[in-house]
Design brief:
Elements lengths: L6 E3 L12 H9 L2 H12 L5 H8 L3 H13 L3 E6 L2 E9 L1 H4 L2 H14 L8 E4 L9 E4 L11 E5 L1 H9 L23 H4 L2 H11 L5 H8 L3 H13 L3 E4 L4 E4 L1 H4 L2 H14 L11 E4 L8 E4 L12 E4 L1
Parallel strand pairs: 1-6
Antiparallel strand pairs: 2-3, 4-11, 5-10, 6-9, 7-8
C-alpha cells in the first residue's frame, strides 16, 4: 500500500467528551454477524417478520430479540403493528437502516471475492444498465475511483482509546452460528467483528506496520495486541514482513478498505450532533483534497449507484 494513507495526529482530544464513542457504537452494531444478516435480509429479501428470521438464521429467539432490540434502539429499524394482528409486529428499515446498504454491498463484494463461500453469494445487478458484478469505490465529491493508497486517515489517538475502552453493548462471542453458508460472514468478521480487531485493521489500512506503533496509538496491552495480530495473520488479512518485524496487509486485507470507508461514513450520518473531530478516524481523498464521502460506482456504465437502482439476484 502506498504512503498516501497515513495516521495524522490531530490533537490530544477529550476522552470524556463523547461516551460511548460513536465509532465504537458502529463497530459493536455493524461488526456483529447476526445483525449484518438481519440487515442483509431486510434489504435484499424484504424480510420483516421475527419468525422468518428464526427460520432463516436458526438463531435462538432470545438472541434474535436482543439484536432486533439493538437495531430499534439505534434507529435502524422501527416496529409496526401487522395488519389484522394486533399482537404481531413487522420490523422495517428506517432511513438510517437503509443507509447501511453501501456497507452491506461492500461486505458482499469482499465475501464474493475473498471467502470460501463466495460463489454462494447472490448476484449484484445494476438495473439501469444490466451490469452484473461488484461495483467499485468512488469519491462522491470528484467521482474518481478510490483505493486505500488514494486516501489518508486523520486520527486523534484519544478517540481510538475511547473507542476501544468505552462500554460494550454485548460480547461478540454470544453471536450464534448462522445456518446458511451464504450468510455466515465468518471470515470478514475476523477483521471487523470486535473493536480491537477493527481498530488494528483500520490502522493497518492507514499504513501502520510495527507492533510498537499499534501499541502506542491504541494503548493496548501487549497480550491483547499479539492475540489480535495473530488472529488477523491466520485469517490472511495481515502477513509478516521485514524479518517478521512488520505486519503488512495482504491483498485480502487491502480489499477491506471499502467496508472501512463506509463504516466511517455511516458513523457520521448516524451521529450528526457530534463534532466531526470527536467522531473518530476521518478519511480524506488525496486527489481532490476533500473529506472522503464514499460512493459505489457501476463498472459497466460508470454511474454512481443509488439504493433504488440495484438488486441482488440468486
Amino acid at each position: 500500500m502506498g504512503s498516501a494513507m497515513k495516521v495524522v495526529h490531530v490533537g490530544e482530544g477529550d476522552p470524556v467528551a463523547v461516551s460511548p464513542s460513536p465509532i465504537a457504537q458502529t463497530i459493536d452494531l455493524l461488526g456483529d454477524r447476526l445483525t449484518v444478516v438481519i440487515l442483509r435480509d431486510a434489504f435484499v429479501d424484504h424480510v420483516r417478520r421475527f419468525s422468518d428470521w428464526i427460520e432463516r438464521t436458526g438463531a435462538p429467539p432470545a438472541v434474535l430479540t436482543s439484536r432486533l432490540s439493538a437495531l430499534l434502539d439505534a434507529g435502524l429499524m422501527e416496529r409496526r403493528p401487522r395488519p389484522g394482528a394486533y399482537d404481531r409486529h413487522d420490523y422495517l428499515l428506517t432511513e438510517l437502516g437503509l443507509a447501511t446498504w453501501e456497507f452491506l454491498v461492500s461486505v458482499w463484494s469482499w465475501q464474493r471475492e475473498w471467502s470460501p463461500e463466495g460463489l454462494l453469494q447472490p448476484e449484484f445487478v445494476h438495473e439501469d444498465c444490466g451490469h452484473r458484478g461488484p461495483p467499485e469505490l468512488a469519491c462522491r465529491a470528484c467521482g474518481r475511483t478510490v483505493k486505500a493508497r488514494d486516501a489518508h486517515l486523520e486520527v486523534d489517538p484519544a478517540t481510538l482509546v475511547l473507542a476501544a475502552r468505552s462500554r460494550r453493548r454485548r460480547s461478540s462471542r454470544s453471536t450464534p452460528d448462522i445456518g446458511r453458508a451464504d450468510l455466515q460472514f465468518s471470515v470478514v468478521m475476523e477483521a471487523i467483528g470486535d473493536r480491537w480487531s477493527a481498530l488494528v485493521t483500520g490502522l493497518a489500512l492507514s499504513g501502520v506496520r510495527r507492533f510498537g506503533e499499534f501499541q502506542s496509538i491504541l494503548k493496548i496491552s501487549p497480550t491483547t495486541l499479539t492475540e489480535r495480530l495473530t488472529r488477523l495473520t491466520e485469517g490472511g488479512v495481515l502477513c509478516r514482513a521485514d524479518g517478521g518485524r512488520d505486519y503488512v496487509l495482504t491483498p485480502r486485507g487491502r480489499a477491506l478498505f471499502p467496508i472501512f470507508a463506509f463504516q466511517l461514513a455511516w458513523t457520521r450520518r448516524a451521529h450528526p450532533e457530534v463534532p466531526v473531530e470527536q467522531l473518530g478516524p476521518l478519511l480524506h481523498h488525496v486527489e481532490c483534497g476533500q473529506p472522503l464521502w464514499p460512493a459505489l460506482r457501476c463498472r459497466g456504465c460508470d454511474a454512481i449507484l443509488e439504493r433504488t437502482s440495484v438488486v441482488f439476484e440468486p
